[in-house]
Design goal:
- Keywords: DNA-binding.
- InterPro entries: Cro/C1-type_HTH, Lambda_DNA-bd_dom_sf.
- This is Transcriptional regulator.
- It comes from Sporosarcina psychrophila.
- By secondary structure, the chain is mainly alpha-helical.
- Strands 1-2 form a two-stranded antiparallel sheet.
- The longest helix has 11 residues.
- 58% of the residues lie in helices and 6% in strands.
- The protein has one domain: lambda repressor-like DNA-binding domains (434 Repressor (Amino-terminal Domain), Orthogonal Bundle).
- The termini are close together.
- It has 5 helices and 2 strands; from the N terminus they run βαααααβ.
Length: 65
């Protein structure tokens, strides 16, 4: 799954540490999310959407076949 977490985070002026604190996850989780190595739980996806003030599908898109 592709995502725009890094782009949205930097547009808000947040560091990975800032984002991890706001979402109550580790910085390593943020790194893994941004690199596409980890798909978030539904709860975490909703937290991201709320923080970025957008829909979940604005953040995450399926990979092309």
């Amino acid at each position: 799954m592709n995502n725009l977490i890094k782009e949205m985070r930097t547009a808000m002026g947040l560091t990975q540490d800032d984002l991890s604190e706001k979402l109550e996850v580790s910085r390593q989780t943020i790194i893994s999310l941004e690199k596409g190595r980890y798909n978030p739980s539904l709860t975490l996806a909703f937290k991201l959407a709320k923080l970025f003030n957008c829909r979940i599908e604005d953040i995450f898109t399926p990979e092309e076949d």
